[in-house]
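Sharing a chain and its predicted structure for anyone who wants a worked example. Both blocks are below, sequence first, tokens second.
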Amino acid sequence: MPLLIASCTKQAPLEQEQPSRGALVARVGEVEIREDDLQRAMARDPGATPDRFKGPGARRELVDGLVRFELLVQEAERAGLTKDPDAIHALEQIAVTKLVNRTLAEASSPDSITQTDVEREYAARQASEFTLPEAALVRHIRVSDAKLADQLALRARTFAASDDQAFAALASSRSEDDATRATGGDLGFIDKNSRLPKAIVEAVASLELPGDIAGPIPTDSGYEILRLVSRRAAVVSPLSAVQSQIRQRLYQERRTKALDAFIARLREKTPVDLGDGG
């Protein structure tokens, strides 16, 4: 069983009165492990289920894990490691996380984002983020010689509009583009946002019907001959497909703004002076 990170309470002096923490389960040196400590350890276990620790064997294993951890904690204290800067920083990080979660409780869950918020964000970003633009499926042939490019373009224009495989075979045998030659010059879908050279994107936009040819087009890589295979209309993702994504983003934005505002309030009441190295 992995080590359980638990917090057990050192035994208080007799004259001090402590609230009840449940029955005593174990004592490790001066530290008592009580029933409440077991319950917290169960709650922290990410794989725990309500019935997992009901059996005596599982409970004994849990207690043993807490005892082992406490033995190591005490040895770390004797070695002075609890005062180590890294250990102190780790504890501070836990404390800060708890503080932030408590302070930002209202913005701490995606459930705080209303359906109206989601629908408004979807409407504002539908065209820019949730719509695949119209695109063209294109094959190409690239060669470095201008005269050869003219010859291949002339030949490509003799193929029937329905004979896509003829162009693919020509690309496989004559194109100098190693990346697409094996697939018959398949460039995939190209839209207005494509990162291909501007001349190619503009030429693709001019192709109207399957089988149309553009080129030769001079580029930095050579001469391009393009063939339109098909066109795809713009595709809008429905709200139902993206609302979880929108909700999560709005939650993160709201939480970030709330945290920034909280830190701004802390700056107002706490002097911050930056030294020469700041």
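Comments welcome. The mean pLDDT is 86.
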